[in-house]
Write a structure and sequence with these properties.
Oligomer: heterodimer
Strand order of the largest sheet of chain A: 1-19-18-17-16
Radius of gyration of chain A: 19 Å
Radius of gyration of chain B: 12 Å
Number of helices of chain B: 0
Strand order of the largest sheet of chain B: 1-2-3-4
Structural class of chain A: mainly beta
Shape of chain B: globular
Helix content of chain A: under 10%
Distance between the termini of chain B: 18 Å
Largest sheet of chain B: 4 strands, antiparallel
Number of strands of chain B: 4
Distance between the termini of chain A: 24 Å
Order of helices and strands of chain B: EEEE
Strand content of chain A: 35-45%
Chain lengths: ~350, ~55
């Protein structure tokens, strides 16, 4: 009976928060509880582990607030420490502010330094930079499109995201901020700040997913055909904010913090705490424990309820395992196995 | 006028050294203030650091 009322509550909230038919609404689906196993990484102390990537038998972990370095690599699965990348600093070849990392087809590490406004590529022997267009103002996430282009969210709100080539030039742009509340002023920079999002692109199927950090909205694009497939809206709705001197002062929720496009599914990590509760100290952890799974049409198919609050994850669809980062403990690397049998 | 203050606050209970906290406030006039608090994952448009919340 409680489950029925929960369902009714979610439906009512959905109707209130997502009033327009252009949004796909989340439907009630099966929730599956997952239990983690914890790995030991003895040689590294992380401050705020945030992104995890895998390439072959090498594991990359990014520390959002690293003391000296931003990225640490380990062999996998034996987890021997290998080396660091991205020395923190303002000098040449140093990183001011690492926002995300990606691994290209050749196994080279790419890093976004938002404060230097550059993308940096590391191989084992060299490091080179690609300047991002100054017109972007500030770039908060990126992904690779093949070996020659990058997709980044549009911080100015002129579009939803832009495609950059290796010369640092804008070559294409996608969509617009799908705000219903501000549909007459969607190119506003404060609106774009509030709609700051994380994105992920899968070159195998051409699907680009964009998940709002401060709301409960996910957009799915078919980048190969330049079309919007779906905009999915949950009960907490679009990002809420107050405009303050040209800045966005968010006052809604912590929404999504990581998203991954798989071969037939999209995975998005949802936090769901209100910023008011965080501000008042009622939330004692960092991260979310709801891993939502959508099909490529935007239908929510299941939700994994994790036993930990995590900030970033990497799903291996072949082995049906999730590697995840729990910043609330001293050993942040955890694994969830046997997803298919759940 | 720009006001910058610093203070400390424990944020992640298992990492005592994770108390680096900052507050940056911008006052364009006396009634308009944005402040960024703590260590977290929200990008502060003023300090260009990742903070826990913006007020």
């Amino acid at each position: 009976m409680n489950r029925f009322f929960s369902f009714l509550f979610v439906v009512c909230l959905s109707l209130v928060s997502c009033q327009d038919d252009i949004y796909t609404k989340k439907k009630f689906v099966q929730e599956i509880e997952l239990t983690s196993s914890q790995y030991m990484l003895d040689q590294v102390q992380f401050r705020y582990p945030y992104r995890i990537r895998m390439y072959g038998n090498k594991l990359f972990i990014m520390d959002l607030h690293g003391d000296e370095n931003y990225i640490y690599t380990f062999s996998y699965p034996d987890l021997h420490y290998l080396r660091t990348y991205g020395k923190k600093g303002s000098g040449p070849n140093e990183i001011l502010d690492c926002k995300n990392i990606r691994i290209d087809e050749n196994g080279h590490l790419w890093m976004l330094d938002s404060n230097k406004n550059i993308l940096v590529c590391f191989s084992d022997t060299e490091q080179y930079e690609i300047p991002l267009p100054r017109s972007l103002i500030r770039t908060l996430d990126f992904d690779l499109i093949g070996n020659s282009q990058f997709v980044v969210p549009d911080y100015k709100g002129e579009s939803r995201c832009k495609v950059i080539n290796k010369s640092g030039e804008i070559v294409e742009e996608y969509g617009e901020i799908p705000s219903l509340k501000y549909q007459n002023s969607r190119t506003d920079i404060a609106l774009a700040q509030a709609w700051r999002s994380f994105l992920d692109y899968n070159p195998e199927n051409g699907i680009l997913a964009i998940a709002t950090q401060l709301g409960e909205v996910i957009e799915i694009y078919d980048a190969l055909h330049d079309s919007l497939i779906a905009t999915i809206c949950g009960p907490d709705g679009e990002p809420k904010y107050l405009r303050n001197n040209g800045f966005a002062k968010p006052n809604g929720i912590m929404g999504y913090s990581d998203v991954q496009v798989g071969s037939k599914a999209i995975y998005a990590l949802f936090w769901g705490q209100t910023l008011k509760d965080i501000q008042h100290g009622k939330v004692t952890h960092e991260g979310g424990n709801r891993l939502e799974v959508f099909d490529l049409h935007g239908n929510l198919t299941k939700v994994y309820l994790l036993d930990r609050y995590i900030t970033g994850f990497q799903i291996d669809e072949k082995t049906q395992t999730i590697l995840a980062l729990d910043p609330n403990c001293n050993q942040p690397l955890v694994e969830y196995c046997n997803l298919k049998s759940q | 006028m720009t006001i910058c203050l610093l203070f400390s606050q424990s944020l992640v209970h298992t990492s005592e050294d994770l108390t680096l906290t900052n507050l940056e406030a911008l006052a364009d006039n006396e009634s308009t203030i944005i402040s960024c608090y703590g260590v977290g994952s929200i990008d502060c448009p003023l300090t260009k650091t990742k903070v826990k919340f913006i007020e």
